Amino acid sequence: MNLTASNSLGTGEPSRSVITRTKGAAPMPAPQQSFITLNSTYVILHIDGWQSGGCPILHFNIQYKHKYQTQWTSFPERIPANRDKVILGPLVPDRDYFVMVTAHSEAGVTQGEYKFRTLPMASPIETTSLPALVRREADLPFHRNVTLLIPVVVSSLVLIIVIFTVVVCLRKHTQDRRGQQEYESQKAVTDSLLMSEVSQKSLSGKQSVNGSHYSSPTRGQHQFASSKSGGEQRRTDKQHEYAEPYTA
């Protein structure tokens, strides 16, 4: 933009052009986690999660379709920006859908497309036509609350398996240790018996050796005595010969 000045004499030359920009931007879509609340036959769209971008949102247009459809179904009316949520339905349980939300403001138009799947009829959340009557999982009894029941059951099974494994390992270790002790006891008894037999055999061998050693000198003495007596006899005979010489 530029400026020009005028007076009674006329209009002056325009000033140098200046480029500027107003504040604000087009609306920004809401994240899906906080934008859609699922149910079996309807969903709740929290349109208050959209950001204005600095310029107020004027209104919303909503369209939706089944996953395998080509034509969009438009919501019958424009949604004013001062509403916080919109109920979209009726829908088929356990089916995939697309929803497109278009936000209009003076700064521009923004479209946000979301994909979701309705809950099955067997879901813990009961389907009704009024969102105020929707029962949340936290309000259900413990035995019907699948979100709490499944982790408890799984944890209990894991704990039982761990305890059973520990008991089996301890019992096996005890049996192995007991078998080792019995084996060592039997081995000690066997070694003791073998040592006793070896000692008895050794003692018997010593006794037999001693008996043969003692009998030999006796026989030697007898032989010596007999030989001695024979010598004396021979000497006696010789003395007798010398005592009585032979005369022819």
From TrEMBL:
UniProt superkingdom: Eukaryota
Annotated coiled-coil segments of the chain: none
Main subcellular location of this protein, as a coarse class: membrane
UniProt membrane topology term: Single-pass membrane protein
UniProt entry keywords in alphabetical sequence: Cell adhesion, Disulfide bond, Immunoglobulin domain, Membrane, Signal, Transmembrane, Transmembrane helix
Chain intervals for the UniProt region annotation (Disordered): 199-248
GO BP terms: cell adhesion
Membrane spanning residue stretches: 148-170
Biased segments, Polar residues type: 199-230
UniProt subcellular location: Membrane
PROSITE patterns xref list: FN3
SUPFAM superfamilies attached to this UniProt entry: Fibronectin type III
Positions with biased composition (Basic and acidic residues): 231-248
GO CC annotation: membrane
InterPro entries attached to this UniProt entry: DSCAM/DSCAML_C, FN3_dom, FN3_sf, Ig-like_fold
Fibronectin type-III domain span: 28-132
Protein name (database record): Down syndrome cell adhesion molecule-like protein Dscam2
